[in-house]
Amino acid sequence: MLEIIDLNKSFKNRKVISHENFSVNNGEILGLIGQNGAGKTTTFKMILDLLKPDSGTILWNKKPLTQKEHNIIGFLPEDRGLYPNLTVEQQIVFFAELRGQSPKVTKLKIQRWMDRFDVKGKPSDKVKLLSKGNQQKVQLISTLIHDPKFIILDEPFSGLDPVNAGLLKKGIKDMKDAGATIIYSSHDMANVEQISDKIIMLKNGRIVLNGTADDIKNSYSKNKIIIQSALTKNDLENINGVMSVKKVADKFHVEIKNDLIGNKIASQAISKGALIEFIKDRSTLEEIFQIKTTEPKTNE
Ligand SMILES: Nc1ncnc2c1ncn2[C@@H]1O[C@H](COP(=O)(O)OP(=O)(O)OP(=O)(O)O)[C@@H](O)[C@H]1O
């Protein structure tokens, strides 16, 4: 389990991480979102001990993560750094060895991993001959081939086409199923929503959203329901708290004052004998991200 407790970081008196608190359970996937400059990479670097926090605590299974334990980590940096003149095999062997896996073991695994991510190329090809997306997949393999228990991926989807993004999503889920704890950042809300157990949004170094996609979307419901029931337009309009009713096909789109009115409508429909469909029209994660991004800045 990863625990981030009251982390703070400034660069030259400019605060870039403020009172950051979150945790990720073993076997969970956490998606970190936030605009450019929100503090995602800085958070990763502090977890990896590449940057020292000004204050706060980072615990892995209740203990500080020391350099000695860094072999359990697989880290894909945002700035991809491959050696263009090495072959795919030399590259992967090199990175795996840095994490304590012997070349012999790595070599036995390479082809399987290349097939898994559908890398177009051979282990003997020089990295510079591969396309950008395939180079990215080689870097990903270099990050994962030692079977890390704790995986940090900084924008792993950037530069991947939808088919390869799908392979990566499957890869991430497989690693979770094998028990790994995974944190990654992304600007692609659809990907984030599909694979994250928890989502955190950073804004100017502060956490402004924290929860499952469902929790977050429920807390931003649009005060609108779509209902198909025994209630007539007139019935709905007469319920206190209903702002407007519009008929669309055989359903009503009802604007309500707040969530509680939705419950009231549902129970009236049930007492009238038929509630065929009841949908809360929720904001998408993308919409919530936009709302949060444009909200005025809060002070310390
Ligand atoms: N070494 C540094 N020195 C000074 N400022 C820095 C340094 N590293 C990061 N920053 C600043 O800290 C803030 C957070 O940057 P960070 O790279 O963590 O953002 P991010 O959320 O990862 O952004 P992106 O989505 O663009 O990768 C930014 O304002 C950035 O300019």
From TrEMBL:
One of its GO terms (molecular function) is ATP binding. InterPro entries: AAA+_ATPase, ABC_transporter-like_ATP-bd, ABC_transporter-like_CS, ABC_Transporter_VariousFunc, DrrA1/2-like_C, P-loop_NTPase. Gene3D superfamilies: P-loop containing nucleotide triphosphate hydrolases. SUPFAM superfamilies: P-loop containing nucleoside triphosphate hydrolases. It holds the Pfam family ABC_tran. This is Uncharacterized protein lasY.
